[in-house]
Amino acid sequence: MEKITGIEKLMVKQTTMLQALSGLKEEIDSLNKICKNESSDEKLIRTYRNSVTKLFEISFDLFWKYVKEYLWGMHGIEQQSPKSVFRECFKLDFTNKTETAHLLDIVDDRNRLVHTYNEEVAIKISYKIPRYYDLMKKLVDAMKV
């Protein structure tokens, strides 16, 4: 039985996370298409919005854990929380000040969705998710192995 190396483990995490981000993008596109269709009913829109927010939660968890592993595997930097991981990204010039602030906002919004679910809040956050996706994808593209 072969032992998986650190870089192979990182590549597996990368693949899984990229699949999740791809699924999130597809669902964002589907929601946008449905919202543009004037004949779509509110129940259908709510179903797709809930799907987008759930996929966002999953994608974000995989995303920040991948970035954490990348920092450890490629730079020897160990951090335990999403916010500390993103602050390290800023120190390493993977993100600028504005992008880092947005990444910290993503953490807060993800926590609001998971820990204090409120439909009105979820709706507001759902409008931000396409921008959040773009930022996550940009950072991942800069950190591919």
Coarse structural class = mainly alpha
CATH architectural arrangement: Up-down Bundle
Number of domains: 1
Quaternary structure classification: single chain
The chain-level mean pLDDT equals 92
The Cα radius of gyration reads 16 Å
> Gap between N and C termini, in Å?
24 Å
According to CATH, what is the class? Answer: Mainly Alpha
CATH topology: the name is Four Helix Bundle (Hemerythrin (Met), subunit A)
The run of helices and strands is: HHHHH
Compact summary:
With 145 residues, this protein is an all-alpha fold.
Tell me about this structure.
The chain has 145 residues and is mostly helical. It has a single domain, classed as Four Helix Bundle (Hemerythrin (Met), subunit A), CATH 1.20.120. 81% of the residues lie in helices and 0% in strands. It contains five helices and no strands. The chain has helices at 6-36, 42-75, 82-91, 97-115, 119-142. The longest helix has 34 residues, at 42-75. The two termini are 24 Å apart.
Key words describing this protein structure:
single chain, 145 residues, mainly alpha, Four Helix Bundle (Hemerythrin (Met), subunit A), 5 helices, 0% strand
